[in-house]
Amino acid sequence: MNKQRRFVAGVDSSTQSCKVLIVDPANGAVVRAGRAPHPGGTEVHPEVWWQAFREAVTQAGGLDDVAALSVGGQQHGMVCLDAEGHVIRPALLWNDTRSAVAARELINEAGDGDEERGAQWWANATGSVPVASLTVTKLRWLADHEPENAARIAAICLPHDWLTWKITGSRSLHDLVTDRSDASGTGYMAREGAQLPERGEYRTDILAAALRIDPSAASEIVLPRILEPFEA
């Protein structure tokens, strides 16, 4: 490790705030810390997270002596990007319940009107049954209530996926990454033990159904690459 960069940083971008800890990996001691609040509500523009991250980093004394950084945070939210990497609309957070009707629709559609059968289909396919917090239900809400925004989608990610991407400085949508826990909470990742597609892969057929688009169009939408444990 570079002697000038001997610490590591952990970032927690939660619903309420962004917290940054600078840690000495040699002994686990917290060297410095910073924190900045996020606004309340269930809909937040991602740039607010970026500003809070920068404020928390400044409060923590900067990252000049940090060799590696990892981001964790809130799950299930919906961040939609256009082909230029711009945020299409403020992110809907996990606690936004306006997609509750969409959740019931997706269940009933999967069961051809039979809610119990539909719930079982979702459990078999993704390991989860849609509720308002899951990203897939928010995408259905967007398709039904803001079709002009849904039509602009080139990439979909979750809150801490977006912040990780922003920190890297990349402008390529194909550099978006996520982890298995985050991806499993979208509602469109194949469950453990599923045969087709391969376990851990995204179900673009589900994405297409949620957005009411052709599967071929859904396959063109960029989704974050799912990192393996310990992969950077």
Report on this structure.
The chain has 232 residues and is of the alpha/beta class. The protein folds into two domains: 1-73, ATPase, nucleotide binding domain (Nucleotidyltransferase, domain 5), CATH 3.30.420.40; 74-232, ATPase, nucleotide binding domain (Nucleotidyltransferase, domain 5). Helix content is 34%, strand content 20%. It has nine helices and ten strands. The chain has helices at 46-59, 100-110, 115-126, 135-145, 147-150, 159-168, 180-184, 204-211, 215-218; strands at residues 7-13, 17-24, 29-37, 43-44, 66-73, 79-81, 91-92, 155-157, 177-178, 225-226. Strands 3-2-1-5 form a four-stranded mixed sheet. Strands 4-7 form a two-stranded antiparallel ribbon. It has a two-stranded antiparallel sheet with strand order 6-8. Strand 2 and strand 3 (29-37) form a beta hairpin. Helix 2 (100-110) packs across helix 3 and helix 2 (100-110) crosses helix 4. It is elongated and about 60 Å long. 40% of the residues are buried. The model has no long low-confidence stretch (mean pLDDT 94).
Fraction in beta strands: 15-25%
CATH architecture call of the largest domain: 2-Layer Sandwich
- Helix share, percent: 25-40%
Shape: elongated
Q: What would you give as the CATH superfamily of the largest domain?
A: ATPase, nucleotide binding domain
- What is the rounded distance between the termini? 16 Å
Low-confidence blocks of residues: none
- The name CATH uses for the topology of the largest domain is Nucleotidyltransferase, domain 5
**CATH class call of the largest domain:** Alpha Beta
Q: Write out the strand line-up for the largest beta sheet, numbering strands in chain order.
A: 3-2-1-5
